[in-house]
Amino acid sequence: MIQDKIVVQADSRYPLNGILTLPEERFWPCPAVVLVHGSGSSNMDEKVQKLTPFKDLAEGLAQRGIASVRYDKRSYAHGVKMVRSKEIITVQEETIDDAVSAVELLKKDKRIDRTQLFVLGHSMGGMLAPRIDAQTEGLKGLIVMAGSPRTLHEIMLDQFDEMMEKSNALTKYFLKKQVQKLQDIFSKLDQMTDEQAKKISMGGGTTAYYFKEMCKHPTEVLLKQLEKPVCILQGKDDFQVSVSKDYDAYQRIFAGKQNAEFKLYDDLNHCFVKSMSNDISKAKKEYNVERHIPEVVLDDLALWMKKVQ
């Protein structure tokens, strides 16, 4: 296995350190995948406390003859600069532009098979995978891990509702106030102009327009238009997205089509490691014990990418 240091968006205002992980030379030119983060700020390993799902994926896929690019998310590497710039941030600037740039970087590497390029989006990255594809030429297929065809604000409100159910009275009181504020904003998104949405702060340098802009590109519509192969994976014990509301919804979207493959794993959580609990109120404990993505997930991913024609 070879690990080359790279820089995504090297000539931009927001260069991002990353790693191109390659299998042994005998596999060259090889398929390659760009790993796209979920929500929030995270490094190139997509580190969540003691879990490192992107590092697991990169090293596991390299052992199976597939290269990958992973890089620090823009909001992780340049969060302060982004806030101070006072630019209106959307997922386009935060995620999509960098993923597109990473694909172009792979196309220039002679060790990579340009006919076998994929994007793997985890969580919100999976929600954005169809938008990344729409702005990129030459992708062979998409992988969605723990994604959702719903809107981001629907998922957020569901997560808050579940947390309230599991919380004590004091915590529930403060969560309820927060949820009421969010519900009020989200219920008015459709009626807001873009300029009105841009003036409503959601914290962390983000405005209501972040959510409104996502609604302009419905994931479900983009998926229904998609003809290329898609692989959708989820863990049954994922408490951040839902089997019934998300995984099953993907199956309904692709009903009657032949371009989607589905994998649902018992006992795996949102980061695709063995779960300790499916209780969202115990998230800190869930992610604070080192575990790694099991071989079966890595085998399934590698097999799917190699068989896509």
Description of the molecule:
There is one protein chain. With 309 residues, this protein is of the alpha/beta class. The chain has 2 domains: 2-151 and 218-307, Rossmann fold (3-Layer(aba) Sandwich), CATH 3.40.50.1820; 152-215, no CATH class. The chain has helices at 53-62, 74-77, 79-85, 91-107, 124-134, 152-166, 169-187, 194-198, 208-215, 219-225, 243-253, 283-286, 295-307, and strands at 2-8, 16-22, 30-36, 67-71, 112-122, 139-145, 201-203, 206-207, 230-235, 260-265. The strands form 2 sheets. The chain has an 8-stranded mixed beta sheet with strand order 1-2-4-3-5-6-9-10, with helices on both faces. The radius of gyration is 19 Å and the shape is globular. 40% of the residues are buried. The model has no long low-confidence stretch (mean pLDDT 94).
Question: Top keywords for this entry?
Answer:
309 residues, alpha/beta, Rossmann fold, 2 domains, eight-stranded mixed sheet, two-stranded antiparallel sheet, 13 helices, 20% strand, globular
- The CATH class of the largest domain, by name, is Alpha Beta
SSE string: EEEHEHHHEHEHHHEEHHEHEHH
Looking at CATH, which topology of the largest domain would you report? Rossmann fold
Any idea what the CATH superfamily of the largest domain is called? Alpha/Beta hydrolase fold, catalytic domain
CA-based shape:
globular
Oligomer: single chain
